[in-house]
Amino acid sequence: MALSVGQKAGWGLADMGIVVFVVVKQLLVLAYLTAFLGVPVGIAGFVTTAVLIFDMITDPLIGYLSDKTRTRFGRRAPWMFIGVLVMSVGMVGLFSVPEGMGMSANVAWVIAGFGVATIGFTMVAIPYGAQAGEITQDPKERSAMTGWRMAFASVGILIGGAVIPGLAGSMGYAMAALAVSPLMIGAVWFSLWSVRKAPRIETPVTVSFKGILGLVLSNRAFMVLVVLYGVMTLAIAMITAGLPFAALYLIVDSGDTMLSGAASALTTLSLMFAAFVVGSILSQAFWVLLSNRLGKVGALIVGLLLYIALLYALYSALPSVNVTAIAGMFVLAGMTNGAYQQIPWAMYPDLMDVTRRESGAAIEGAFSAVWLFGQKLANAVAPAILGLTLAAAGWLETTDGTIAQSDGAIATLQMAITLIPAAILFVAVLGLAFIYRPMAARALA
């Protein structure tokens, strides 16, 4: 049964709520620890990484449990319904550090809140990814669903990367997180309601945890794609983690360009994210069409090559006092990032079908868990790499937002968000072209 436009769009809406937290953990936690709590950047990077590694441990468990869940609402919905509440409470809590505590207590508080939020995120994200393999087996329909998903995800990026920092400047991070929590919860709950009549697999699997894991790992094309998507995510996560620092130290508004008023009203970081989101939203239909014309792998390679070219251009343009020109480049960055956002998420459910066809086991939750494991590993490693890189260059922490940095530290930051991610993305391109493409062609034949 073909899905209606409302079901495709409604399913995609959930990612708006999910991505708010994804952006917060990638973009704001490291900066919050270093710029507002005075935690040294190397320690802050490892704190962020430690929590995200803990989160990865829960992935296989949640995937396994959701595959084996039996309720009248299906296998996935109860996890998502409760998980978004847990995620929202944890996100507000991690920014609600009481005043007057020492650095160790501050770090412990953030770790606790961050841990709760990431568990809630896993409870939502893994069952949500599994739904993509359950409610349709049509590859083109999955591309359309993912297009809707990433369009809404772009709005989530705007909320997490532009609205929350803007609100935080006037009301504090905790109140800003609380203000957007109803949007997160509402997006996931409305998504569940919109797909309540879509096809789904009701019968829980009877295969053991070890057996399920073995089936996933034996899907070689899927495992290669997991690794390559993790490589891509490492590049993007380094960029995202470094953007708050770039907005403070590499993009200094001169006050006399077209968007200077907007930069003053929104903060430079919020303006850059708004520009990025505009580009991402504009590109979604294009990447769906290109995937249908070139195939998903070909379209993804094109997108990543364009991304690499854009990052080199951005390296050449920074530091800059022309906020309008940099915002324009961020629109282009959002358009190229649209390929990374959308296409891999439409590719991996096709590989679920291979295992279901060969084994008869509907283990979409396990596939979603392993898929997110690779993404989360990259997101966990990126802040630590960035923190160590900046610390080695003599980066200075502060509790005042900004502090004078050395020329070497600024140059290192510039490379860490442009040339280094570009090199990582090129590795992913080579892997897609010469390893994944022929392997997937045999598996999906």
How far from one another are the termini?
Answer: 23 Å
What's the CATH topology name? Answer: Growth Hormone, Chain: A
Strand content: under 5%
The CATH class label is Mainly Alpha
Transmembrane segments: 12-37, 43-65, 77-95, 107-129, 150-168, 174-193, 222-251, 271-290, 297-315, 321-340, 377-396, 416-436
Organism: Yoonia litorea
Domain Major facilitator superfamily (MFS) profile: 1-440
Family: Belongs to the sodium:galactoside symporter (TC 2.A.2) family.
What attributes characterize this protein structure?
445 residues; mainly alpha; Growth Hormone, Chain: A; MFS_2; Na+/melibiose symporter; membrane; MFS_dom; transmembrane
Write the layout of secondary structure elements.
Blueprint: H1 5-35, H2 41-68, H3 77-94, H4 103-134, H5 139-171, H6 173-194, H7 209-217, H8 220-249, H9 260-266, H10 268-294, H11 296-317, H12 323-359, H13 364-392, H14 407-416, H15 419-444
Helix pairs in contact: 1-2, 1-3, 1-4, 1-5, 1-6, 1-8, 2-4, 2-13, 3-4, 3-6, 4-12, 4-13, 5-6, 5-10, 5-12, 8-12, 8-13, 8-14, 8-15, 9-10, 10-11, 10-12, 11-12, 11-15, 13-14
